[in-house]
Design brief:
Length: 284
């Protein structure tokens, strides 16, 4: 394999593989299969215990979780992952996905070659580096492959139940989107304003704004919304998507009045709500 592409897979950590590769590997390995090996066989070869595998069976996307846990181990290289898939006799997955795996590996090597010496920068939250590292739960601690998301969710605490429903509908279904939910995904001890800016600008393709009466009183939501709007004047990139999920007593925010709303309050359109929102978040 490596001879054809001249890529040294042994030198590349599994963290170099992006979300797209992981999701597509999951399409091969998540379904229970009586003919070919599934994620359980792969987990066994990775030395997961019987109890660990039984607990992972409760997850909607077990292979992705297996990969996330395995990649923290010192042996978690792309070479070993390919070897494990071969031992599990899943050469079909290797063959079909080799091109995009190689693409991620090349991008990783390019980043390694051009990665500059990081110079400390001082802001209102103290010294930092040009590229922030280890700010989210599954971030690469070395900062080589920052965790990325399909959408940043802007919400206030009183709307957290609807955010849980959003997670259920968009992440834990066949839609398989990846949301950045601040309370769940961001590590404690970081500067709220600076980290939110980096996530919105560099890590998330889009931002969903959960609009409610309480949202209008939230300084954090106000900052996040205005920052996102500053990145896409005129909404040319469909970067910001307002969502209304319950009736409001206060006027709708004027800065968002020119954007198309995803409205959950109308029973006649609720059937299409999640499909429309998922499609908007899936655009390139």
């Amino acid at each position: 394999m490596a001879s054809k592409s001249s890529i040294d897979y042994e030198a590349i950590p599994v963290t170099a593989l992006n979300c797209s590769v992981r999701k597509k590997l999951g399409l091969y390995l998540n379904p229970a299969n009586t003919v070919a090996a599934d994620w359980r066989t792969v987990a066994e070869i990775m030395d997961f215990t019987y109890l660990e595998i039984k607990n992972l069976e409760k997850r909607d996307y077990p292979f992705e979780k297996v990969l996330t846990e395995w990649e923290t181990r010192p042996e978690a290289t792309v070479a070993n992952l390919l070897s494990i898939l071969e031992k599990a006799e899943r050469k079909d997955a290797i063959s079909d996905l080799k091109e995009i795996i190689d693409d991620d590996c090349r991008k990783y090597l390019e980043r390694q070659q051009r990665k500059p010496v990081q110079v400390p920068v001082v802001d209102s939250c103290g010294p930092r580096t040009q590229e922030r590292e280890g700010i989210t739960l599954y971030d690469d601690p070395l900062g080589l492959t920052p965790e990325t998301f399909d959408a940043f969710i802007c919400y206030c605490q009183s709307d957290i139940q609807f955010v849980h429903e959003m997670i259920k509908q968009l992440e834990q279904t066949e839609r398989n989107l990846k949301l950045c939910v601040f309370d769940r995904d961001v590590l404690p001890g970081t500067c709220v304003w600076t980290i939110a800016s980096e996530l919105i600008e560099k890590r998330c393709k889009r931002m969903v704004v959960v609009i409610s009466d309480d949202y209008l009183d939230s300084d954090a939501c106000d900052f996040q919304t205005k920052f996102a709007l500053s990145l896409c004047p005129g909404a040319r990139s469909k970067r910001l998507i307002p969502v209304v999920y319950k009736s409001m007593k206060k006027p709708f925010p004027s800065i968002l009045r020119f954007l198309t709303i995803c409205d959950y309050t109308r029973p006649c359109t609720q059937t299409w709500f999640w499909t429309r929102l998922a499609k908007a978040l899936s655009l390139p």
